[in-house]
């Protein structure tokens, strides 16, 4: 499986939105310029991301694009599937029972394991993680508590 350019551009655009999370909404022309994405191509990607709720758009002078969820709540799998549809590294894993060899196929379990591991990596990679790794060191500090869930209590004794 190879990601299309459209999926790559969608990931770049989403990382840009996450990097600029506190300066939203962001204009699509600014994202296109910063991420080296043809603006006409980005305009075609936006509806797919919007239809899945990953982004929202606002029209007008102070309008633009903003994330539909906080960066830690969006992962790479969600972005890729918004553009490409369900991910399958082989047609036998697409869920449509199109392969008649599947019941006795020696390689099916290998494909299944490989896909499971790939999906696990995509699911465990949040937009927040990618945005922080892209920021210059001075900006890389996420706001206090952003993206962290904890049940620990700190007590001074």
Overall description:
The protein has helices at residues 5-19, 28-35, 39-51, 76-84, 108-124, 127-134, and strands spanning 55-58, 64-67. With 157 residues, the chain is mostly helical. It has a domain at 5-86 and 126-134: Arc Repressor Mutant, subunit A (Orthogonal Bundle), CATH 1.10.10.10. A two-stranded antiparallel sheet has the order 1-2. It is elongated, with a radius of gyration of 19 Å. Residues 138-157 have low confidence and may be disordered.
Entry keywords:
single chain, 157 residues, 45% helix, 5% strand, disordered C terminus
What's the Cα radius of gyration? Answer: 19 Å
Mean pLDDT: 84
Overall 3D geometry?
Answer: elongated
Q: What is the CATH class designation of the domain at 5-86 and 126-134?
A: Mainly Alpha
Distance between the termini: 55 Å
**What is the CATH T-level topology of the domain at 5-86 and 126-134?**
Arc Repressor Mutant, subunit A
Short description:
The protein is mainly alpha-helical and 157 residues long. It has six helices and two strands, in the order H-H-H-E-E-H-H-H. The protein has a two-stranded antiparallel ribbon.
């Amino acid at each position: 499986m190879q990601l299309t350019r459209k999926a790559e551009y969608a990931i770049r655009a989403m990382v840009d939105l996450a990097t600029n999370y506190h300066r939203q909404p962001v204009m699509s022309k600014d994202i296109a310029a910063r991420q080296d994405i043809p603006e006409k191509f980005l305009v075609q990607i936006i509806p797919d991301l919007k239809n899945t709720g990953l982004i929202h758009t606002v029209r007008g002078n102070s309008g633009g694009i903003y994330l539909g969820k906080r960066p830690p709540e969006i992962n790479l799998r969600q972005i890729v599937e918004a553009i490409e549809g369900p991910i399958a590294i082989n047609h036998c894993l697409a869920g449509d029972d199109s392969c008649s060899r599947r019941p006795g196929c020696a390689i099916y379990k290998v494909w299944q394991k490989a896909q499971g591991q790939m999906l696990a990596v995509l699911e465990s990679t949040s937009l927040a993680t990618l945005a922080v790794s892209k920021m210059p060191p001075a900006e890389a500090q996420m706001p206090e508590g952003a993206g962290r869930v904890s049940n620990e209590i700190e007590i001074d004794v």
